[in-house]
Amino acid sequence: MKIGCIGTGAMGGAIMRAVCKKYDPSQIKVTDKNLEMGKAFAAETGASFVKENKEVLDCDYIFLAVKPQFLADVFAEIGDKISSDSVIISMAAGVKIEKLEKFAPKARFIRMMPNVCAQIGQAMTAITYGQNIKEEEAKIAQEILSSAGKVEIVPEKLMDCVTAVSGSGPAFVFMFIEAMADAAVRCGMPRAQAYTYAAQTVYGSAGMVLESGKHPAILKDMVCSPAGTTIEGVAALEKNNFRNAVIEAVTSACEKSAALGK
């Protein structure tokens, strides 16, 4: 099986680094309009670097790590050269399969939405696919992407929501960690230690949700002792509309994702 990738930037690079660790890098081709970046990626991972996008079109699975605004230019170059034997996996946020097929009518597409946590092998990735993709091909794509973390298949109508929750979500979590650390510094903790305490607390709390299977509200109640410190903090969050702020952030990101696809 040959795997190709057009684009080795932040997201494409993170995914393909993980893939290169799981699969034979000699069977992986990458290309990038930034030649130095592409060559550096190939030198780091053992993948083969090719100068032109069309040189990856002989691969079985081709990742398209291109931002939505650059899709038209890429397809103008390769759209009519894509074989129906290949599976194209697009990372372009908000761009529906129907629109991708208009760029390249002969191509067969899987749409994916990863997140930045792929850099440490802890991505939450969703994939959806068109009717001309075989179930076996979708499962292979899922297996390839599992190199970088957890992968689920979802209906396309949920992809804008996925973009908002897991795609944009890390930025919201980073802001929360930063705010927690700022508060710790305010209370007297050294800055470096504050980041460690805040980040590890978020990491461990997320693990409890995933491993216990319990509702987050139940886990929250476990920490809130009567007349204790935690319930006092929870009351402060509620007073300052913490939940509503998070809901508005995710909703706004979802609406922006939908707008990008139009």
Description:
It is built from 11 helices and 8 strands. By secondary structure, it is α/β, with parallel strands linked by helices. The protein has an 8-stranded mixed sheet, with helices on both faces. Strand 2, helix 2 and strand 3 (48-49) form a beta-alpha-beta unit. The longest helix is centred in the C-terminal third of the chain and has 22 residues, at 191-212. The radius of gyration is 21 Å and the shape is elongated. The model has no long low-confidence stretch (mean pLDDT 95).
Give the secondary structure arrangement, pairings included.
Blueprint: E1 3-6, H1 10-22, E2 28-31, H2 35-45, E3 48-49, E4 61-64, H3 71-78, E5 87-90, H4 97-103, E6 108-113, E7 123-129, H5 135-145, E8 149-153, H6 159-167, H7 169-186, H8 191-212, H9 216-223, H10 229-239, H11 242-260
Helix pairs in contact: 6-11, 7-8
